Hints:
The chain is an alpha/beta fold. The chain is 38% helix and 19% strand. The protein has helices spanning 8-25, 28-35, 69-80, 112-127, 142-145, 155-167, 172-180, 189-194, 227-236, 243-253, 265-268, 278-291, 307-324, 352-363, 399-407, 411-415; strands at 36-39, 44-47, 50-53, 60-65, 86-91, 101-104, 133-139, 198-204, 271-276, 295-303, 332-338, 370-376, 388-392, 421-422, 433-439.
Amino acid sequence: MGPRHHDTADRRTAAVDCLTAGIDAAHPRRVVEETVTLDDRGRTLVVDDTRIDLAAIDDVLVAGGGNAAGHVAAALESILGDELDGGAVVTDDPVAVDRVSIREGTHPLPSSENVDGTRDVLAVADAAGADDLVLAVVTGGASALLAAPAADVALSDLREVTEALLERGADIESINAVRKHCSAVKGGRLAGRAGPARVVGLVLSDVIGDPLGVIASGPTAPDQTTYADAIAVLEEYDVTPPSSVEAHLERGRDGDGETPDADDPRVRTVDNHVLANADTAIEGAAREAAASGYDPVVLSTRVRGEARAAATTHVAVAEEIAATGRPVEPPAAVLSGGETTVTVRGDGDGGPNLEFSLQGALELDPDAPIVLGSVDTDGFDGGTDVAGAVVDGETVTDRRAATTALRENDAGGFFAGRGELVRTGATGTNVNDLRILVVDDPDDYDDE
């Protein structure tokens, strides 16, 4: 065990360092370089445990999208060199790449730029031949960035439905069930367009449990949902869709071209590999915590539900550690991943990580030797320009203002201009949320 930390400043520094280390561990360039290599003097491409004889391949192409897609393309270009023949990806974090067209789009809502970029991606897929290899890049954020609305659905209508579901606190599986059935690229359709080429999916997961059909709305995976499921989601969350969406979903339900399921030959032979996920970030943060003298304990990588409720539970775990040494003796670092949601009732500024942080600050005792931090690993919490916040029991000095901010979904407004905000800018990755509670020994209270 390393040195103990006895004051709030040290705990806050440790929290930020652990969050940063977790984000860095999930950076696509790092994970691609660890999992994708050239072997046999450059004649064999190895992806995890899959070996591909490049002598049998005409062209190696890249196609896909997401927050991390540009960095994945850059890493692939660095590894493959002249073996990479072209491609296109859509991302909101563009980087310089010579052999792949990097199309810049918007996130978290689709735009005309996304649609134009996705047309380039589909053109790459459509042109792939039977002897080609398509490396399909699928990362968090691609549900919005890979935007190719079905021919009879207006982009503005798709945005309206997405916004309505987000505001009502719909989980990602529900939102993506609707997105997949209003799209020409999601729900296995990108893989279908790339056939008969060999398709290998390179996936960075931002979804709890890494379900391939949900990550980025599953452009290379079989779809377990149906048009009827999409309609049921809208009914469950009391969303009245625009007429183009309603008519399209009803036609699909009545038999107009369902998305490919697991038995469909268009997706059955796709070889998908999850290169990074919440575990990747958690493990990086845990290594940093141990190096800083804190015993790391992983609460869960699958935390979900309302952000405020999750914050209360996390604080309770930290309090238990401080008071009883269960389940781990302090000094300790409690880590969790996953994705919480916010049911929007106000019109303030904020996201799940900011609400989690503010609720946690309200719950923490001012004298408790505990610091809480929560960030979105892509660097942008909800629609804000910050990743999240790091707080302690002294953060909230006006409880009425804090509870009002939560009621109005204005955690961002509450934290504005304060030192608690974590600003990273675009991180190059997206593996969901990352949280930490740094807990010191309560016997050290008097040292502060």
